[in-house]
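COMPLEX REQUEST
Ligand: 3,4-dihydroxyphenylalanine
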Amino acid sequence: MDAVAEIGEYERTALAAIAAAADAAGLEAVRVEFLGQKKGQLKELQKLLGQVAPDQRPVIGKKFNEVKARVTAALESRQSTLDRPASAAAGIDVTLPGVPFQLGKRHPLSQTMAEFKLIMSRLGFDAVDGPEIEDEQHNFEALNIPPIHPARDPLDNFYLSVADRRTGGPLLLRSQTSTVQIRVMENTPPPVRIVSLGRVYRPDTIDATHSCMFHQMEGLWVAERVTLADLKTVLRLFATSYLGDDVAIRFRPSFFPFTEPSVEVDMHWGDGWMEIGGAGMVDPNVLRAVGYDPECVTGFAFGLGIERFCMRRHHITDIRRFYENDVRFLRQF
Ligand code: DAH
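STATUS: Structure written out below.
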């Protein structure tokens, strides 16, 4: 066989062996066999080149170098294929970097409510929940709000189109968390010391400071000799715990059907006073409605707007931000 044919034969068998190598070890054996510098087929071929007639040498030498380069390239390419994990063959490359994802955070209002519960628990108040769908007994009647009272106007409440399955009476989305006072006292003999945090619903026109759904924290402490002074102390301790020692609390006389006397609660922090909710001494009629004896126990109650506090602390100027779920807003907390 002449040298050109030998070189051709070498290339053909080398490429076939490379393609057939099933793993890295097999490919390495092929490399030693066809490209090894000390012995093997390449060495044989070089020996043969030495015997080629001098005028043929440049042509044959060029051909030899081209073939050697092609075999080397084929070997390298096969090597990188064998190095890749098996999953890559199925279209999944596990060596690629993962898809980054953003961890979620608790909503600022949820954070605020968790903090409120913690503060109030230090003052001895247990956190309890109540239903958001209520009957008139708990939303109005037991709270000393009679049927003729304007707060019961259907236009000021979200009445549901379904009736209470048990009583057949109307149902509505609760307009205040004061409902939970009744539910707790119905089921627990005094003393009680609770807070209840949650959503309330009112058909308000939505703007920067109004929403038809917002959150309240209701507080109730009924025991022997609880006074209005205790109420003010608790509210002051609560507000200073949340905002700092430079908070002042003041009461303004007011009216709520379920408290006597009743007050509006204002808070001073930074610039100016702002109203944070209502409060008062639980009306004897309310205590009687749940079977408590107003001659033996007294109590205070309060209802605070949760959004207001959170907005004040974080300098949020529009209540609607809380409910839009814009992550650019939510991520800041
Ligand atoms: N429920 C009242 C409201 O939503 C707030 C309130 C006032 C709650 C006085 C109370 C209270 O517990 O004693 O406007």
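REMARKS: Residues 251 and 265 are 5 Å apart (CA to CA). Residues 176, 178, 218, 256, 258-259, 277-280, 301-303 surround 3,4-dihydroxyphenylalanine (CB under 6 Å).
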